[in-house]
């Protein structure tokens, strides 16, 4: 099949190999990660290690982003987000983050999660192709998406989790059909420096299950939503910090 840019859809044939870094060079340099090794681990459905791919951070790039996207709108977004992200990465941000700034942060977090997933070794991708297209064309984050940030205790390293599975118990309806609906959801959770974030997509459920299934935070005192966000923005930092990324990844109750 012809390789195309995951965002704009242009053919990658004849273009020089993309150097769109999943984690931008400025971020790697700021956290001293440029020379560190990255270990990308795939797990089986039983939670066992399938295989591990190791490479330097500087070599962790997406081969499915065209040069025009890389040096155009994505570079522009990096420039807008960088001064807002550094205080969060360093753990020194205090006070209120304005609504407009939250929107820029959310766009950067969403773009990074999507670009990261495009380079995933998963046989079946979790993020629908239309989410890339929508974000490219209108810078719009799909309805049903919530982007949350948390303050992480400690700064060393970088870690992420990509999940397409949830825990839940259906009441009525077909379990088989419900499982198909669950396959439309995803969550991508990352931690860089003192900043942790989670992108979760949870579409509206069909009427056959009565009131829509909803996701609630197990401990809302440790997070702030930057998308959607109220007109006053958010206060930072949260009352509680997290010490394990799984707290953020698994901290949802499905009702």
Description:
- The chain has 255 residues and is of the alpha+beta class.
- The protein has a domain at 81-254.
- Helices cover 29% and strands 24% of the residues.
- The chain contains seven helices and 13 strands.
- The protein has helices at residues 25-31, 67-71, 73-90, 99-118, 129-138, 175-182, 245-249; strands spanning 20-21, 37-43, 49-56, 61-62, 95-97, 145-151, 158-163, 186-192, 195-201, 215-217, 224-227, 234-236, 252-254.
- The strands form five sheets. It has a five-stranded antiparallel β-sheet. A two-stranded antiparallel ribbon has the order 1-4. The protein has a two-stranded antiparallel sheet with strand order 2-3.
- α3 (73-90) crosses α4.
- The mean pLDDT is 83.
Task: Please write out the topology.
Layout: E1 20-21, H1 25-31, E2 37-43, E3 49-56, E4 61-62, H2 67-71, H3 73-90, E5 95-97, H4 99-118, H5 129-138, E6 145-151, E7 158-163, H6 175-182, E8 186-192, E9 195-201, E10 215-217, E11 224-227, E12 234-236, H7 245-249, E13 252-254
Antiparallel strand pairs: 1-4, 2-3, 5-12, 6-9, 6-11, 7-8, 8-9, 10-13
Helix pairs in contact: 3-4
Task: Name the shape in a single word.
Answer: globular
**Count of DSSP helices?**
7
Rg over CA atoms, rounded to whole Å, is 18 Å
Helix-strand topology string? EHEEEHHEHHEEHEEEEEHE
Number of distinct beta strands: 13
Strand content: 15-25%
**Major sheet details:** 5 strands, antiparallel
Low-pLDDT regions:
none
SS content category: alpha+beta
Average pLDDT works out at 83
What percent of the residues sit in helical stretches (DSSP H or I)? 25-40%
Terminus-to-terminus distance: 41 Å
* Order of neighbouring strands in the sheet with most strands: 7-8-9-6-11
